[in-house]
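Changelog entry

Holo records now carry the ligand SMILES as an explicit input line rather than a separate metadata file. Below, a converted record for zinc ion, shown in the new format.
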Amino acid sequence: MELRKDPITQSWVAVGHRDEAPSAPEGCLLCPGQEAATSSLLTIPPQGSWRIRVIPHSDPLYHIEGNLGRQADGIYDTMQSIGAHEVIVETAEHNQRLSQLSDEGIEEVLFAYASRIADLKRDSRFKYVAVFKNQGTLSGEEWTHSHSQLTATTFVPRRVKYELHAAREWFEQKERCVFCDIVRQEEKSGKRVVDTQADYVALCPFASRVPFEVWLLRRKHNHLFEQPQPGSNRLHFATLLGRVLRRLEKVSAAYHLVVHTAPNTRNPKGRLEHYWQTLADDYHWHIEILPIVQSVSKSYSIKEVYFNALLPELAAEHLRKLDPNA
Ligand SMILES: [Zn+2]
Ligand SMILES: [Zn+2]
Ligand SMILES: [Zn+2]
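Structure line, unchanged by the conversion:
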């Protein structure tokens, strides 16, 4: 497999076959008892029965060893699919969903996300570390056992790149973070706010791409998910995330969740590239959740323009009224 860059959109695409997957063991690979089949990158707690385990993906999209092998083929750019691909097993219980963990349990999962991101960012080859979760058959989940995935890539994925460019432009013009501006305006109007907990807000974005799309943000500015500021209590964030997921599961069993954090600015020459100069001020980490609502999923097209049949204001109102604890 190799990575090819589209010269127009500048996005990297992994093309070719995945390597032959090793034969899967009997039963669930993510359940306790399979520890011998997989090496562990992080185990919580380190001794005794674990609650969370991070393991290398058994059929990875990216491989950790090797050179980038950047090459030009005429006008085209290619590189080897170097990177990391990990699986974060969120619970030892096969049938327990993330939304069913205690607030402390969810906080621990967020801690596992953060420590893996921070660890992989120490490798200057990796420009971005993405954490995402696909839940439900419609989302293309790989195992039914509750898990998230992480990829470290030698490039910044396209959607994040768009966000970074837009955030930098906004900051250039207004000297304010666009995400902080969004949170302020949304809290003032309240129309699209789903729920809040201490410093954290969940809202349906103004231009939601799919029905019941929800973003979770912190009111106070911080560009790095993996580096909580002193005094930011992640338990509150975990509490909010749990409630939002339990609300969403009442309208849709499947969803995509993605953590957006700032890219890795560490570079081998040890200096900050010009375009990252204002990054710490202009970018703001957040989580996006895109539910897959079957009955209306046909309504948005693949023609690069989203058509969302449900007004975000109505979606937020509906989600607000649902009892996350019932
Ligand atoms: Zn399992
Ligand atoms: Zn901000
Ligand atoms: Zn985002």
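Spot-checked after migration. The chain has a mean pLDDT of 91. The pocket of zinc ion (ligand 3) is lined by residues 163, 260, 286, 288 (CB under 6 Å).
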